[in-house]
Amino acid sequence: MFDTPNWQELRSIPNLISLGRLILIPYLVFLILQENWQLATGLAVLLGLSDFVDGWVARRFDMTTSLGSLLDPLIDRIFISAILVAMVWADVIPVLILGAIVGRDVLLLVLNSIRGNKLAVNVIYLGKMGTWFLFVSFALLFLNQLMSSGNLAGFAAAGIAWSVIIYWLAGWQYFKDAVKG
Questions:
Q1: Which of 14, 78, 92, 128 is the most buried (most CB within 10 A)?
Q2: How far is residue 68 CA from its own chain's centroid?
Q3: Between vectors from CA 77 to CA 72 and to CA 82, what angle results, nearest 5°?
Q4: CATH of the domain at 48
């Protein structure tokens, strides 16, 4: 179904950064549920930037690994899903947004499992763009909670809407790739 990761690769700097991100996600959820928007905003930005840093380090210093190609997108999905669930729970976003974003990921996971495809997918530019739009939209949502600004709320809502559209467009491409096997 998928290649067994080489667990020695876990010690690479990019994979350690990814694991650090994974470890901090529950704390971010806790901060959101406590409505500690100042710390939550800082941690969310740090986690979003660390996603960029681990990929940059892996490519720049030729430290890409098969484990990293599985870990990084998986941790991105966990990060996105955790923030969405916490934001729904904190009544910041409607459950429809959670369903639209997580639903796409679940659909692709089920399709790849049924087809017997690898769990690690070839990430496409549109997929990266959708993820980054989500990260920026999350930052705007967090900042809006800090400042209660109508302007930020509008930008955040527009960002989330565009994120869903881009996320599903990328999902369509991943869907076509999964069907091809």
A1: 14
A2: 15
A3: 125
A4: 1.20.120
User: Which structure tokens are listed for 167?
Assistant: 């996320």
Q: What is the pTM of this model?
A: 0.89
| DSSP state at residue 156 | H
The reply to whether 1 falls in a domain is no
Residue 29 included in any domain: yes
Residue 73 structural domain: 7-180
Number of domains comprising the chain:
1
Burial (Cβ within 10 Å: 0-12, 13-18, ≥19) of residue 88: middle
- Residues 63-106: tens digit of each pLDDT: 998 888 888 989 999 999 999 999 999 999 999 999 999 999 99
- Phi, psi at 124, each rounded to 5°: -105, 160
